[in-house]
Amino acid sequence: MKNGIWLALALLSALAYTYLGYGIERANFAEVLVCFAVPFSAYFLLLIWRKKRPSFQYLIYTAIGFRLIFLFALPSLSDDYFRFLWDGQLFANGLNPFDFKPEEVENLIPQKQALLEGMNSPQYYSIYPPIAQYIYAFAAWLFPHSLLGGVVVMRLFILAAEIGTLYLLPKVLQQFFMNREKTLIYALNPLVIIELSGNLHFEAIVIFFLLLAIRFLQKDDTVFGGLSWALAAATKLIPLIFLPVFLRTWKWPKPFWFYAFGGFAFLLLWFPFQSFGFWEHFRSSVDLYFSTFEFNAGLYYLIREVWQSAVGYNPIQTLGPMLSKVSLVGVLVILWRRKWPNLKAIFTPILMALLLYYSLALIVHPWYICTLVFLSLFTKYTFPVLWSVLVVLSYATYQTEAYQENHYLVAVEYLLLFGWIGVELLRHYQRRLPWLRLY
Questions:
Q1: By 3-state DSSP, what share of the chain in percent is helix, strand and coil, each rounded to 5?
Q2: Average pLDDT over the chain, rounded to whole?
Q3: Which of 43, 192, 314, 364 is the least crowded, having the fewest Cβ atoms under 10 Å away?
Q4: Residue 277 near residue 99 (C-beta atoms within 8 A)
């Protein structure tokens, strides 16, 4: 009976994933909600009903099977893959993707018109780091005339990274004397499955390299730990903001070898993209990220409304850079406020630093939350799992061609999220401050 229930839940989840991969329209928000609600219902039942669930190995194979469902699907909830393949086509054809805005390229590259029409940012320079660029170029080189072929190649890299994560994660958890079954919180999380394997986001590769770095550091190998961390940061830049934590964890000269080898590898990976205008172009794209675009930005929207009511105009070009500076200072305070006694202890400040960063960011896409879910496995906090559910509400934006956000849904998302964070922080500090015992 037990196996029959779990088999039924797995089949329902598989049907939802199949429809998300091959049949859904992003503009149909009701269908998107249902297709997330079905696997999330099974997911939470699995987490709660621990004594009667299938074996750990069975569930890991199920998680891999869910990811494989998307293998031959074009991403249905994201159009970023058009830019991925555009950058790959440029690099594969001898052009530096950081030197040209897509609208400036006159060369006849394969699928030029189809890629330009599907792209959401043809007027901006690329912002994707080198490891991602190498994968884009490999996919474009193998399948220059096939969107699906290029997508499948990129997805194979993501699937390999996810399988590597599911292999390493139990080992890393057990090395920290933690229950290996916490792996299931990440492995079966529907947002992780859909956004990484389904929608082709490279957080999967970042998470794998971060985990590989932690595995090396558990073995006291700072050289390969630094190299792995560099590979993570060279896929997406987010791991760079965590680096100061090691200065408060290790005694000298251990941090030197970590930063030296990691820093050298990171810079070396960028070398093929160096050109006269590279840094200016890359900086301009980063500036646009902090001062032009807005999406699912809870606290920013609140501050913006107060500011706008006072001065009468949208303050994004002032407020965005200002919040990024506040975020940077806050991250440094969190990572430096005390010495961290061991490697396991660094995950809580890293999680809180990333929470602060996203709380003040102007853009919080659903796939960003996957890294928080991963980091939370090594802490006592569960709010990233809740956020992985609530962030699905942001897909309401795509119901209209103008991409108009529903600020009521954004308010629901962040009120519930910060309410639960408050509860978790209160529970945490009750142990240190008895006068906080209010319930």
A1: 70, 0, 30
A2: 92
A3: 314
A4: yes
